[in-house]
Design a protein that fits this description.
Length: 376
């Protein structure tokens, strides 16, 4: 005799999910379980002859309440991916929808959970994923683990796509750069723009030049695991590259046409040290006596003062902003200054040296603006 549990998930939910996304969720749960308890080892195997895929954990035990949407042991755990308590329930629905039977051998609780799509009377005949929990299952043999999930009808081509979603299933991911607790930069060209979290594919971002495998702590995912905030992503990739700013690959990236991977690099490094380390490299690339500018206004200003402006991308300009600022402060204009500009420059330099009382500051600015209004 088995107990029946209907899930309140319509089969039209997450329409764009396929087998790969569903298996990713099951794999993610398994990995998260091991993260929370290193002794709770995860495992994964595929038999192409039987077209059967196995996912499991040594110590995990499923509780009935875990079938409720929102129930999870991982809420606010920054080291795990899952946060919403939906993953394996939605994955089950997707697999059933795509013709892949899934069975949960809940050995630790001495149960077998079978699943199928059922026309629900409660929901006017709508198909819903349904679990049948059998507590009277007679075991022929019990493996040395508490949980095994078996997914059937996985073809070899489907398994290849699953491997694309899971880095640890790929035999060779090529050269990488370790970034401490942030994760790894994937340098191989085939990963360009690919974003992984804990080795699981999340999305592709065409703005970036490399692939990234990021730890969950540094990249917040939405419910469907397929989109991330551009700001969060580029902030994290900039942080990762700041750990490798001495390398040639970083320099090439910084000076590339679209260096979005290091969009916020100027916030991550000491600008004074950065300029000192990279000054010669900058000169080698752009020539002596050049001043980096990022817009037409800066270009015209440097040109007016007799400098040699060169357009650079925003990350380069931000890193070498002091070069621009120092040039503007130290170089005299080739043209004669107006009285108004001379007074303004004098007052600005005065403020750098002494503290001007607020009342005097306002009075001077009023006089200066009145003088300027009469000129025009």
């Amino acid at each position: 005799m088995s107990s029946k549990f209907e899930l309140t998930i319509d089969t039209n939910y997450v329409k764009d999910w396929g087998v790969s996304q569903a298996i990713r969720e099951l794999f993610q749960n398994s990995v998260d379980e091991e993260v929370q308890n290193p002794d709770n080892k995860s495992y994964f195997s595929y038999d192409k002859e039987t077209q059967t895929l196995i996912i499991g954990n040594k110590q995990s035990i499923l509780n009935i309440e875990s079938l409720l949407l929102g129930v999870t042991t991982k809420t606010n755990d920054k080291h795990t991916i899952g946060q919403f308590g939906e993953g394996y329930k939605i994955a089950t629905m997707v697999l059933l929808r795509t013709g892949h039977p899934i069975t949960f051998y809940n050995y630790g609780a001495k149960e077998v959970w079978t699943t199928r799509l059922v026309k629900s009377r409660r929901y006017n005949g709508r198909l819903v994923p349904t679990f049948f929990v059998d507590k009277n299952f007679f075991w022929q043999s019990t493996p040395d683990n508490n949980l095994t999930i078996k997914v059937e009808n996985i073809t070899e081509s489907e398994y290849e796509k699953i491997c694309d979603f899971i880095l640890c299933l790929q035999p060779d991911i090529g050269e990488t750069m370790d970034c401490d607790s942030y994760g790894k930069i994937l340098l191989d060209a085939r990963y360009k723009g690919n974003i992984y979290v804990s080795g699981l594919f999340v999305c592709k971002n065409d703005r970036i030049n490399y692939g990234y495998n990021i730890t969950p702590e540094y990249l917040q995912l939405d419910r469907d695991r397929q989109t991330v905030s551009d700001f969060d992503l580029l902030w994290t990739t900039s942080r990762m590259w700041s750990l490798h700013k001495e390398t040639q690959v970083f320099k090439d990236l910084l000076y590339s046409k679209h260096p979005d991977d290091v969009a916020y690099i100027d916030v991550m490094v000491s600008i004074s040290n950065f300029q000192e380390d990279f000054m010669q490299d900058f000169i080698d690339r752009y020539g002596p006596n050049t001043i980096p500018v990022t817009n037409q206004e800066e270009y015209d200003l440097v040109k007016e003062r007799g400098g040699n402006p060169v357009f650079v991308t925003k990350p380069v300009g931000a890193c070498f902003k002091n070069m621009f600022n120092d040039f503007i402060l130290n170089e005299k204009k080739t043209k004669s200054q107006s009285c108004y500009d001379a007074l303004k420059d004098w007052y600005n330099s005065l403020q750098d040296e002494v503290e001007v009382p607020l009342g005097l500051d306002m009075e001077f600015k009023n006089i200066l603006e009145t003088f300027y209004d009469k000129l025009i």
